[in-house]
Amino acid sequence: MSQQPKKRRVKRSKMETSLTNSEVKKEPKPTDIEMKDQIPPAVPSSSPMPPGECSSCKETVEKPVTCGSCEKLFCWKCFDVWLSFTPRTICPVCVAEMKKKVESCPDHDQELNLFCLTCGIRICSGCFLHTANHKRHQIDDLDVVYREKLADTNGKLNVVGEVLQQFKSVVETTEFNEGLIEKTEQDIQTELGQLMEKAKSEAAGWKEGKMRLCGLRKEVPIKRMSLFGELQDKINGLAKHDFIAKKEELELEAAALVPNAQALFPPPIDYHDYECSLIPLCRMVPIILEKISLHLEDPKYDVIHSVDVSDSSETFWTIRVFKGKHLTVDFSQKQLLKHSLSFQLYVEVFHVDHRKTIRVMQETQSTNSHIELIEMDKLKESGYISNADEISMAIWIRPTSIIVERQALTLNYLDLKRQKFELDTKHCDVVSKLAESEQFSVGYFRIPLERLQFPEDDATVKLQIKSHAIKDFSGRSWCLYVERVKANRVCAESYIGVYLMLCSPLKKKSSTMRRRYYLELVNQDHEYSIRKYGRDKFDSKARFGWSPFVRMSRVLAESAGFVRKGAIGFRFGVQNRKRK
Fold this sequence. Notes:
Largest sheet: 5 strands, antiparallel
Number of helices: 12
Radius of gyration: 56 Å
Number of strands: 25
Shape: flat
């Protein structure tokens, strides 16, 4: 309580100093921020005022003090008294009105100008000082917390605003895509119209050519038969001596009616008559059933022929010919397509007389289909069996349309792609397992003895032969070096040295890797083969092995068993697993 008068004296001295200098400056306190938005700040008048009556004591004052809010006049005594009750530079009447507008604490009748960060509620100074509910809680000024929270929220809103601002580009892109879709649809319609016109024109031209061919097939035989009838009438109308004189001429005229007649015969199957580029092509599969008489004697239902074929959509089929009560052809797809597509199947059983040839056409959407051709008992009676005891057949398979052909090609491609992926996965699994196993990657190398002979001149001291490369389970290449070295002070006779070398480059020039390996000179009796094991650090340049490995005299010995068909054989292996 002793400090409050001192504060009032300090404020009063500051106010008097400001009045003497005709300037009043007061910084707004945090408690006045909310009020500043509602009521303008009130300060003593800085300009000379005419004498007036004090609104409090009703006395006439020469230099009154004016409230900036309500513009009432006060004397200096009343102004001093109001400063003792409130630190604000507005009159008590305005303060009372402000308190009515500002929410106050119901327990202490003070402004809720503090914020408890622990509890997350507004409190007044009395709640913080005189109650135990907020004791040792983290307290801060309400305006400060408001500004901090507002700044944090504004920062997050700015991020959201930036993201939403980017959505404008999505709208623009979508509108552009809508225009492209409409344009593409128009282009597709135009292209489809052009294709339809082209297809109609091609179909019309195809029809005209085919109908012309059919007309010729009908017209030419009729004309030739007419000419043949006229020739017969002419012969019958000639006198005997005239016929004898013109016999050769008449025979040549008759023979002229026969050439090119075979070209007028229709193809074995009607499909060729309506073949067009707008429909898929058929692939003919000839089938010859040999020794058919033996199958006629045995009525048991059995397969007498089987063949695998593919159509224009690269769909693979298995065709089986069954004999039983009927001669039956079975069609089955080797790989099952995910979607049922329609295919056309053609079967033809040839006869010497084309008019008796059996032609069957069937459309199917299933993966298996059966076609019964003719009863087995009627094959010989009807003359379908040739003198060589054979039946000739032909099979055609094709998709019903170009669209179906493309769908089948797509499905087959996807199926092959899936199979490749599965095989690659299995291959990687097997390689990874082999890479961790203790198995050796083995290579074989045979050398003719002629290559190990030194030339007649004595200049050559060493012969070196390199083998082909083998790959271990990690994909690294290895090769074998075989050397024959002449005798010297160390060895009294020539010997063979064997070395192993890494051919694949490593990731780093200075890096090395340790591998276990073996080198073997193969003997006809495997128990006497010379094999040595080793474990060394390999790099891309160094070779490791044994020198001398074996004496040449021991290799060339007749009873040794190392030479076979004028050559010696080596075997070498590399273990991929790192051994500790």
